[in-house]
């Protein structure tokens, strides 16, 4: 049983390190949750869980900075979506002509 506890502690430590690394990456690159997930090889859900629930307990200052990036991304989301749609239909119309 002691081995399971040690493993759990190691995983917990690595989760904390991952949270801090994710946060720093997102702040430095103004990255979205999706982009950060791709770079770190984890799901969007895990990224979101790490930077909202876990990070607040680990480093409140870093958490506040990441929240600012998340809010900015949320405000820009509709613009990025519109640009993607425009690009999609531009490519489609270019293929048919």
Characterization of this structure:
- By secondary structure, the chain is an all-alpha fold.
- It has one domain.
- It is 91% helix and 0% strand.
- The protein contains 4 helices and no strands.
- The protein has helices spanning 2-29, 33-40, 44-58, 60-96.
- Helix 1 (2-29) crosses helix 4.
- The longest helix is centred in the C-terminal third of the chain and has 37 residues, at 60-96.
- It is elongated, with a radius of gyration of 18 Å.
- Mean pLDDT is 83; it is low at 1-11.
Task: Name the descriptors.
single chain, 4 helices, mainly alpha, disordered N terminus, 91% helix, 97 residues
What is the structure about, briefly put?
This protein is an all-alpha fold.
Based on the structure, what is the oligomeric state of the protein chains?
A: single chain
The number of distinct structural domains comes to 1
Question: Largest sheet, if any?
Answer: none
What percent of the residues sit in helical stretches (DSSP H or I)? over 70%
């Amino acid at each position: 049983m002691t081995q399971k506890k040690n493993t759990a502690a190691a995983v917990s430590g690595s989760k904390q390190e991952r949270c801090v690394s994710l946060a720093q990456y997102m702040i430095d690159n103004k990255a979205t949750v999706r982009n950060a997930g791709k770079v770190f090889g984890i799901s969007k859900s895990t990224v979101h869980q790490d930077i909202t629930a876990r990070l607040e307990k680990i480093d409140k200052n870093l958490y506040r900075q990441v929240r600012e990036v998340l809010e900015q991304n949320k405000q820009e989301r509709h613009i990025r979506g519109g640009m993607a749609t425009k690009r999609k239909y531009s490519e489609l119309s270019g293929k048919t002509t």
